[in-house]
Amino acid sequence: MIKGIVDQNDDCCICMIGDFNSIRHCSESARKGEVIEDRDIHEFESHIQQWRVTELSLTGKKYTWYRPYGFCKSKLDRMMVNSEWLGKWPNQVLKGLGRSFSDHITIFIESQVKDWGPKPFWFINCWIEHPNFKEFFENKWAGYKIEGWSGFVLKEKLKLLRQDLKKWNKEVFGIMDEQNFKKERSYRGIGYY
Predict the structure, then answer these.
(1) Neighbours of 138 (CB within 10 A)
(2) Which of 11, 33, 46, 66 is 20 to 30 Å from 72 at the Cα level?
(3) Residue 44's CB: how many other CB atoms inside 10 A?
(4) pLDDT digits over 118-166, tens only?
């Protein structure tokens, strides 16, 4: 049934989340006295390949299901997504929390990417090595006279600093990016760390 849904919706985002009641590896189960059948693991893996999905990683907990007193525990709850889903939301993981009244933990999706908006400027690490950089930076930063609330002042100072750094980089190094700077140093036999 699931394979048919996947085949009919090949260009759609597909997400399957829940209790699959199966494990993918022996390490996903700690059940005292229970023998784990390789056949069951291989069958589940075969289904995952047929569905053309990838499992999102789980952080915070190793197991998602527990028997009372913790004598048996397994990773049964999962989130499987297809490549279209990953293309749209590439940096997601499952976060495992504790149990309440259920024998399963609570899980939720968490994005690992923080969007802080546009980057105010790029920074080339080799600038710090230049003997005049600290003085240049301190003089420029102190020279910007902007009024307003602190967030606005910071944003405007960074905008001005970006332009000054760009100009300073071109004047001092004559190049515009770190990759070219590394090449130039290696041609001159100067080590770069």
Answers:
(1) 10
(2) 46
(3) 15
(4) 665 677 777 888 899 999 999 999 999 988 888 888 989 988 998 898 8
Residue with tokens 């709850």: 77
Model's pTM, two decimal places? 0.54
For residue 149, what are its two tokens? 């609330």
Whether 76 and 104 have beta carbons less than 8 Å apart is answered as yes
Residue at token pair 């693991």: 41
b vs e for 78-89, b when ≥16 Cβ sit within 10 Å of the residue's Cβ? bbbbbeebeeee
Instruction: Please return the burial class of 139, using the count of CB atoms within 10 Å of its CB with bins 0-12, 13-18 and 19+.
Output: exposed
- Give the DSSP per-residue string, the chain: -HHHHHHHTTTS--EEEEE----SSGGGEEETTPPPPHHHHHHHHHHHHHHT-EEPPEES-S-SEE-GGGSEEE--EEEEE-HHHHHHS-SEEEEE---SSSSB--EEEEE------S-S----GGGGGSTTHHHHHHHHHHH----S-HHHHHHHHHHHHHHHHHHHHHHHHS-SSHHHHHHHHHHTT----
> How far is C-alpha 140 from the geometric centre of its chain's CA atoms?
35
